[in-house]
Design a protein that fits this description.
Elements lengths: L1 H22 L3 E13 L7 E16 L3 E14 L1 E17 L2 E11 L7 E13 L2 E9 L5 H4 L5 H8 L7 H4 L5 E13 L3 E12 L6 E15 L2 E15 L4 E15 L5 E11 L29 E13 L2 E12 L12 H5 L5 E15 L2 E10 L13 E11 L2
Length: 411
């Protein structure tokens, strides 16, 4: 009964937030996604998991220059046991004033490399458009986000808190993400020399958690995209400066790089090959440290690890043979950049203690999508990770996963 009461309270708060949109005769919609998976991640037996997401959304125009967007979320799932999670998703107010746009509320922010800070944040951002490009300045807070959606695991304490299951009985201590303040100033130009798209940003993160150890850092990020006929080259990088504040404070510097090459195949159907290389530097000494992103965007269909002390090299092929059917095949290879930052599968305790091997192994995944209508998407996917083709955890067993999902726009 207590859980039901909490759910009702949260639903009432969401509806209160949505009322201004309703009063403005807002556009209303409901999107649902149903997915089920089967895997051998557990060494004892194969496991089944199931999840259903409901996303009611509202939007409304205010005059000629402003707009309100609100999206709530509610998840029902089963993974060893049944769980429910309420969430307030994209909730923002936009207003255009001349060449400027102001966004306030909870909205998406992504750095130029899209693996330092990428996701929903609470804050405000101002964008100014000029002949010299787009200038963007924003400030965000993370402490009101749902931790599993935010994926903020910058320190060991962050990771341990993230791993604690959410419970309604201890809502305040198990639901929210770590308290961190982000600030960003960025510049983007879509056609430098009429060909190159350049994005750059200076990002700062301040640790506001009430802990003895605090981790602050800053990033300088640059990304350039160069299209040449049916080809595109992407090149980017970042320098991180970090300050660990404890009984003895320390300073660190870290590096990350991003390279991509894609080719749109000239054919009767849409077809694309792509190569990607993402490198998040590892620890060299007390000064050159492992690169630490703010949000732990996970790479891999099976491995799912954040970009810290890790390199991921990928080949991808995607094709849309006709309007309702598309397919994608992805191959990834994971390499450790040092022998201490990365831990977990496919490394066992002995491999971690022995600092064994840099090469974690390859992963291959594929997905088939069928869209018989614009408001219905069915997807069948699967993947396998093979640690025996690396030297870090070559004795570990192969892991696989299959998944079926359906996304529907109900109205």
């Amino acid at each position: 009964m207590k859980n039901i009461s909490i759910i009702k309270t949260l639903f009432s708060l969401m509806m209160i937030l949505l009322l201004p949109s309703l009063a403005l005769a807002a556009d209303f919609g409901l999107i649902t996604n149903v997915s089920g998976g089967y895997n051998n991640f557990d060494a004892e037996e194969n496991k089944f998991n199931f999840k259903t997401d409901f996303w009611p959304r509202f939007s409304a125009l205010i005059g000629d220059n402003a707009e309100v967007l609100v999206t709530a979320g509610f998840t029902l799932g089963m993974e060893e046991e049944f769980y429910t999670v309420p969430e307030l998703l994209n909730t923002e107010f936009l207003i255009n004033i001349g060449a400027s746009q102001i966004r306030a509320g909870r909205f998406n922010y992504s750095d130029p490399l899209a693996f330092i800070a990428d996701g929903l944040f609470d804050g405000v951002q101002i964008t100014y458009a000029s002949d010299s490009g787009y200038f963007k300045m924003g400030v965000w807070y993370t402490g009101f986000l749902y931790k599993k959606q935010a994926h903020i695991t910058m320190t060991l304490t962050d990771f341990l808190d993230f791993s604690v299951p959410f419970t309604y009985d201890d809502f305040l201590n198990t639901y929210f993400a770590p308290k961190r303040l982000l600030a960003s100033f960025g510049w983007e130009h879509p056609s430098v020399f009429e060909t190159i798209n350049i994005k750059t940003a200076l990002i700062g993160q301040t640790d506001l958690n009430n802990r003895d150890l605090k981790y602050h850092n800053q990033y300088l990020v640059l990304k350039a995209d160069l299209p040449i006929d049916n080809f595109q080259i992407d090149l980017g990088g970042s320098i991180e400066f970090s300050q660990t504040v404890a009984s003895e404070s320390s300073f660190g510097i870290a590096f990350a790089g991003d390279f991509g090459f894609s080719w749109i195949v000239p054919a009767d159907f849409n077809s694309r090959f792509a190569f990607t290389a993402k490198i998040a530097g590892g620890k060299v000494d007390d000064t050159v440290t492992a690169f630490v992103p703010i949000t732990s965007k996970e790479y891999g269909y099976i491995l799912k690890h954040k970009m810290s002390g890790l390199s991921v090299f990928g080949l991808d092929y995607s094709a849309s043979f006709n309007n309702p059917i598309s397919v994608s095949i992805t191959g990834l290879y994971f390499v450790r950049n040092d022998l201490g930052t990365f831990s977990g599968y496919p490394l066992d305790e002995q491999a971690i203690a022995d600092n064994k091997g840099y090469f974690l192994g390859p992963e291959i995944s594929a997905r088939l999508v069928w869209s018989p209508a614009s408001d219905l998407h069915l997807s069948l996917g699967g993947g396998v990770f093979v640690p025996s083709l690396g030297d870090a955890g070559s004795d570990e067993r192969m892991k696989w996963r299959m998944e079926l999902s359906a996304a529907m726009v109900l109205y």
